[in-house]
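Hey L., structure's done. Input below.
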Amino acid sequence: MLIIASVMLFQSGLVNSSSPNLNAVEKRIKQPSVRNTTAVEVALEGLMVLHKKAGNHYEVGILKPEIAHDHVFRIWIDNEELDLKEYPRDKTWALEVVKPSGGSSGPGMRLRERGHRGRLDDSRTGETDFSWAVDLEGREFHNRLLRLRPGNLKPIIQLPDGELWTKYRAPMLQRKLGNGTYSDFGFVTETTALSFNLRPGEKLRLKIANKVIRELPYGPDSYSIKIRNGPREPSHESHFPYYYQLFSNVKKQYDFALVKPEVDPSNVYPDPTPDKRWIEGMPCGEVFLGKRTAPLR
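Output:
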């Protein structure tokens, strides 16, 4: 209709080829709207395990209450907390993007890497790199496959494809192995974020046991989702050892402590409330299993 109207105006002599109105019409035709997606951000906070599945898809397992003592599993969508009490944690949970065709598979996950040198580097260039994550199976830690005891991650949530990145980092940490002494280690991820876009006709669904709990359609500028497994009360003890209850083949365990005086990174968590802390002023952060190929269980 816009093109026809432009032609009629030209032929009637109301505008000519040099008319600024016609140029504006042509510009709008050639340059579609900038915002044709709905941005979604999923924040992952607290005691949980990230894992890459076959096909470069990801899932996250939440430490169950019997392992993560006095921790509470909670989900918010746009600051509205969902009531999860009635939903079984041992069933299949999924966040999935449903396309207009009905399919939900994507091209795979991307891990953001913009470049930083070691864990002591606080350059803003790489402050959101995914590799700030603690990979318990990576070279900095145990450098081998860790055997998971089944049944300790509830629920296990299948994640949609997008880009994983570090939203917030913890203050600088020291680390020790077993009964050894603490030494400076550097910065680690406190909150991981997953970002992706909904396109026209797509929907984001939270499903539990194949039942749709919440559906978010394309349309608004953005959606914000927070998945947290944090302590009920402030704690003065490290919660990192809780992770080792998941594995059957680890004898010497790593643990963390804050560097004193505290050294904050450029992207420190902006709200210092203690409801998600390992130790006073220290976060409950998620970990990654980089060598495992089998699904979480």
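Helices lie at 2-11, 20-30. The chain has a mean pLDDT of 86.

-- N.
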